[in-house]
Amino acid sequence: MKKHNYSAGPCILPQEVFEKSAAAILDFNNSGLSILEISHRSKDFVAVMEEARALVLELLGLQGKGYQALFMHGGASLEFLMVPYNLMKQNGKAAYLDTGTWANNAIKEARFFGEPMVVASSKASNYTFIPKDFAIPVDDDYFHCTSNNTIFGTQMKSFPETAVPMVCDMSSDIFSRTIDFSKFGLIYAGAQKNMGPAGATLVVIKEELLGRTGREIPSMLDYQKHIAAESMYNTPSVFPIYASLLTLQWLKGQGGIAGIEKVNEQKAALLYAEIDRNPLFRGTAAVEDRSIMNATFLLNDESHAPLFDSLWKSAGISGLPGHRSVGGYRASMYNALPLESVELLVAVMKELETKI
Ligand code: PMP
């Protein structure tokens, strides 16, 4: 039986993506070859790469606006250092918003290149909210933020107007809600939430920002080299990129980001309403900053955990435990999670109430 997968990532993808990916492993485009054995320089794969890069820009509304989409390796974690390598001047400064573990990891890596200045942090409250009042120095090289904090279940609902380029780690909410993406100089995201399987990282960058740091950059870490090579500087992650293309095509069929946003809002509203109504549970994130992707919540009485755990597991739900730094539960409701899965979880929460 297919499980209701609430995993934070890698995570659920559309069923049709699993099916088409499986078919391509056996025979890609009726070529008599598996997607796993074809050359990345083959005509068929070059077409996949071109379509995937173009579709990313189309879905984000960034076509013809000076942006390039790249499929990189190394996860979002490698971008923590590629961003300062490519955008921070020698011993330069950049503003960072500290909203959680991943933001912190980005700050740590930036220290190898210059001075990341933390403009605001919610660390003292274990990252239960998004800081809102902060100033970004106009002479910084860029401002870095994390749009959605996968572990803590908080999400930036608005983005500041900045005089400097805005860089955003959108790993866990890219393609999930309408945003004016042209406000950003650089966006990056590991594929393994809303875009595809692990193994590819999306980078969307405004090309005019590159080549200004005065530093020499090793080839594999240089965005300009990857752009010049049309995202094929070395062998790209062929299969994750193909599966990402299938997911992007599926998303387009759902009405693009605006279409899926409606479903995402419906799913989140349903679950948060139950968290707030049910006296056995409480949410961990500030209400105005609650993520529509990752809902974090606790049992008010920990002794109910064994019963709740056995109920959701026997209902066919998977991946619900929270991250160890928050505890409790985390329901990750990425684009491909159907509304019915949320209805089921809500029913199980109600069932717990009747059994106590
Ligand atoms: N940023 C965010 C917001 C994340 O959720 C994650 C992983 N869950 C990362 C960065 C790290 O991504 P990766 O494992 O692809 O390096």
Explain the overall architecture.
The chain has 356 residues and is an alpha/beta fold. The chain folds into 2 domains: 15-253, Type I PLP-dependent aspartate aminotransferase-like (Major domain) (Aspartate Aminotransferase, domain 2), CATH 3.40.640; 256-355, Aspartate Aminotransferase, domain 1 (Alpha-Beta Complex). Helix content is 35%, strand content 17%. It has helices at 15-26, 43-60, 75-87, 101-110, 223-228, 238-253, 256-277, 305-314, 339-355, and strands spanning 4-5, 67-72, 93-98, 115-121, 143-146, 148-149, 154-155, 166-169, 186-190, 201-206, 281-283, 294-299, 317-318, 329-332. The strands form 4 sheets. Strands 2-10-9-8-5-3-4 form a 7-stranded mixed sheet, sandwiched between helices. A 3-stranded antiparallel sheet has the order 11-12-14, covered by helices on one side. A two-stranded parallel sheet has the order 1-13. The radius of gyration is 21 Å and the shape is globular. The two termini are 29 Å apart. The model has no long low-confidence stretch (mean pLDDT 98). Bound molecules: 4'-deoxy-4'-aminopyridoxal-5'-phosphate (PMP).
